[in-house]
Amino acid sequence: MLYRHTVGDVMTEDVVTFRPDTPLPEVAALMDANDIVAAPVVDDDGAPVGVVSASDVLRHETGMPDPQGQDGDDERSWGKARARTAGALMSSPVFTARADWTIPRVARELRGRHVKQLPVVDDDGLLTGIVTRSDLLDVFIRSDAEIRDEVEQDVLGDILGLDEGAVAVEVRDGVVTLRGDVPEPRLVPVVVGLCQGIDGVAAVDARLAAVRAG
């Protein structure tokens, strides 16, 4: 069976967090020291209640609300501009992910929510990590050798049970080229579909012939 990466595989488990009463100078200092653009705000139990971003801090430093109006109504915008703690500045409610989510699912969630990261929570709603857009990219930046091995061993060998060497596999810049014979015509789209489902595969060029054993 092909292995599909999940959020748990790529998320960062050692997460910088703030409490609602964390002073903003401390928030700014920790974000700068750790070179992060956002961090969850958690309650006493460790459940995320909001997120503070670097843009929030920068807008606060100017003493002005969000010029694009994305913070909501004017009262809320000016309130965040006057904030003194992480709890007053954070964006809430917070959207979260689960460790067992697939990479496509969390990618759609990030895009749909227009955010660059999501806190990851367990069954009790407690923080276990954080996943970012850049984390997702790491899944697809795989070596051609890794992809070729997965095609040969998992797809052609374990799943389809083809004889070793029946299909030659070449991978260049994530493009998989298949040359050789398969027992039945119906297997050609099956091979292609399975290869396309491998993380890191950019395209599949199937140059396969169906040769029935006689």
TrEMBL record:
Annotated keywords: CBS domain
All copies of domain BON, residue ranges: 143-212
Pfam families: BON (PF04972), CBS (PF00571)
Keyword Methyltransferase assigned: no
All copies of domain CBS, residue ranges: 11-68, 90-146
Domain of life: Bacteria
PROSITE patterns named among the record's database cross-references: BON, CBS
Region annotation (Disordered) ranges: 60-79
The name this protein goes by in its record: BON domain-containing protein
Organism: Streptomyces radiopugnans
